[in-house]
Amino acid sequence: MFKHLTDILTAWGPAGILLLSILDSSGFPVAGVFDFLLILTAVKAPAVGWLCAALAVAGSTTGNCILFFAARKGGDKFIGNTTTSARNRRFRDWFAQYGMITVFIPALMPIPMPLKLFVISAGIMGTPVRTFLSVVLAARILRYFGEVWLGIQMGEQSATYLKTHVWGLVGAAAALFIVLYLFILWRGRQQTAPGEPI
User: Fold this and answer.
1) Counting Cβ atoms within 10 Å, is residue 5 exposed (0-12), middle (13-18) or buried (19+)?
2) Domain locations in the chain?
């Protein structure tokens, strides 16, 4: 059923891109062809590709916010039932400091990664809305406009390029996670160092 829905929305052009991105990011099991569809649009019509990239960013941000606020709505009860555990408190503290990395990396990379799980975690853990929006927007702008640029530059070879370099992308995601994690760790230590303002 969802594959049929994807085919229908694909035929709608830019409006279909917008609706597909909302559905995909809000948790519906839309067939996993969205990134390649965006690249194909850029290959066929570069001007329309840039519009579709903007619509994809808007739609994906909307979909992620739907999932985030749905998780946040039930988060107070969840947190109230779990904060008594030292282990859960440690996880909350860790997520407050480093959790947005686990949202940024999957949102940035055009490879299957468990973004929805981390979006839900961000909602449950009470991540500030401004922080969440900033991270999702930054990642999606880089990803979708980057894919359109790739489609325009490489043409029909761009989709093949992504497929053949999937392990390179996985390695890049892991390396980026480590770099961001170490940077935040270093920054936290600098801010709490003796003689420094906290």
Assistant:
1) middle
2) 2-191
